[in-house]
Amino acid sequence: MSGGKNNLITDVEGLAVGNASDGKAKTGVTVLVCGRPATASCHVMGGAPGSRDTDLLSPENTVGEVDAVFLSGGSAFGIDAGAGAMAAMKEMGRGFQVADQRIPIVPGAILFDMINGGNKDWGQYPPHRELGYQAVRAAGKIFDLGSHGAGTGALVAGLKGGLGSASGDLSGGGTIGALVAVNALGNPCVGNTKHFWAAPFEQESEFGGLGLPHPLPPDAKGLKIKFREGRSRHQHHHRRHCHRCDADQGGMQAAGDRCP
Fold it and tell me: Distances in Å between the alpha carbon of 212 and those of 179, 187, 209, 220, 258?
């Protein structure tokens, strides 16, 4: 398998992606828009999942295709992004036909970005419904990674998280792609180094071209959990509006910009 043309999920024919963010609240929405209804499936994992309309993707249910899929920050508040995305898709004439009505099918999932230093005092309603609408309207073949869309306020242990994407061309024909909002509890790096565990799989030095450290540092086996260590220091850091965490960087390319 070789890397796709732009190394983005939109290298798959018929797909577009749009982002919308609220910089003050440090949250956002990403929507994957299908050029035509597409078959979709879902596997929900984790101890505290948050999702919308994922049950309808089960093969025994009536609706077999989706018009779009959203990823949103905001924890459970972010589920509202689906309503905004549906509104935009309906304006475009998309949706499952029921008599003289069309119901856009837009399942999605959320991530927890509620204690990242952003101002969540947003008034009566959270911003995610409007962000979902804006993301659909912004959808295109080229889109920003890192601190954009659903990755706006994402964090991992000791690093800024963010939006990432990749694609690959199969030797037998066809293209596969991935889109992910990285908001993991753990640490993607080896101990306290700038070396990513995923270094053997990077393309074109996207992780900095550092490879894996040799020898492995003594803390390589240490368990580093987001918010568990140095939480107050991290929150204070974000209140200072650090240019590092707010920089427009590709999701995993933020390795060199570790929070002090």
Answer: 24, 15, 9, 11, 17
Q: Distance between CA 147 and CA 218 in Å, rounded?
A: 31
Does any domain span residue 7?
yes
**Number of structural domains found in the chain:** 1
Does the residue 47 lie in any domain?
yes
| Size of the chain, expressed as the number of residues it contains | 260
Helix H segments across the chain?
Answer: 81-91, 128-137, 231-239
Burial of 244 (0-12, 13-18, 19+ CB in 10 A): middle
* Residues 6+ positions from 83 with CB-CB distance below 8 Å: 129, 132
Tell me the pTM.
0.85
Q: pLDDT tens, 73-89? A: 999 999 999 999 999 99
Is 224 among the domain residues? no
At 173, which CATH number? 3.60.70.12
- Domain assignment present for residue 58? The answer is yes
| Pick from 219, 173, 239: nearest CA to 26 | 239
Cis peptide before 215 (omega within 30 of 0): yes
Are the C-beta atoms of 81 and 74 separated by less than 8 Å?
yes
pLDDT band at 229 (very low <50, low <70, confident <90, very high): low
Amino acid sitting at position 245: C
Model confidence at 259: pLDDT above 90: no
Q: Which two tokens stand for residue 184?
A: 């993991």
Tokens of 80: 């509202």
CA distance 190 to 223: 10
Range of the domain at 178: 2-185
What is the DSSP pairing of strand 27-39 with strand 96-98? unpaired
